Each structure stands twice: as C-alpha cells, then as structure tokens.
Amino acid sequence: MSPRLSSGRFSSSPSYELLTCIIKKPLFSYAHLELLSKSGAPQPLDNLQVKAYCSAALRQFLGLTGAAMSMDILAIHGADCWVRVPHDCLASFSAALTAWRGSRENGSHCLLRVKHCSDWLGTMVGAEGQERLWNS
Q1: Which of 10, 38, 54, 66 has a CA between 20 and 30 Å from the CA of residue 95?
Q2: Where's the Ribonucleases P/MRP subunit Pop8-like domain (predicted)?
Q3: Are 9 and 60 in contact, with CB atoms under 8 Å apart?
C-alpha cells in the first residue's frame, strides 16, 4: 500500500506496464452452421452443398449483393460446418441463413441453422456442450 500523505490521501506509486496489446477490428468473422433435415438420419455435408445452400439463402435475402458475398468454408464434420465471411458481412450472412426456408431434395426438407457466430474463432472453440446445458 502507498504511504499516507499529510492530507490523508495516498501517494501514487509508480506503475509499470508489462505488456501492451492492441486488438484491432478483425478482417473476418466466423459462423458455425448445422444441417437440419426432416428425415430421421442427419446427412453428412460436403463443400458443394454448403456453398449451394449459403448462396441460395444469400441470393434470396440480398439479391445480387448476397450472391457476390465472399465466403470461405473452413471445416466440415458430419452435419456441422464452419465458415468465414468478411467482418462487415456477418450480420447480413446470419440474417440470410436465419430467414432462409431451406431446400427440398429427394423428398426431404434441408436447411442450415446458425449455431454460433463470432468475430473471433477462438471464442467458438469448446462451445459444443452449451446447447445441451440449456436444453436439459
């Protein structure tokens, strides 16, 4: 603790800055998507399906502007996939997928559900069990 001055206030002791880190606005944002289908068994996704479903949703919601949106597919595991979009487009991307009614293929209705969106990929890692916590 700092020594007391005659006025009753504490003197300010020198402080040292150990680390400086500036976090700027990220260039990209990330979304975790899940394929839902009315058929009993979840179908595995592939790159073409993800691109086709996202393009259809973006084109329906935003027209040509949505069709031109850049999107990178980072990983696909079964019915889950992770995509990267420009930071400024995340709100439009998630709104388009949320409003999209899905696609009907081989008699079953399929759609992509947005499970998680974030500006930082690291915040999405390990979030798998959160949904089970609130649904149990």
Answers
A1: 38
A2: 28-100
A3: no
Would you give the distance in Å from CA 81 to the centre of its chain? 11
Q: pLDDT per position in the chain (136 positions), as tens?
A: 555 555 556 656 677 778 888 878 899 999 999 998 887 666 788 999 999 999 999 999 999 998 899 999 999 999 899 999 999 999 999 999 999 998 887 777 888 999 999 998 888 876 666 666 666 6
Spell out the domain ranges in the chain.
29-126
CATH superfamily, domain at 29-126: Ribonuclease P, Pop5 subunit (3.30.70.3250)
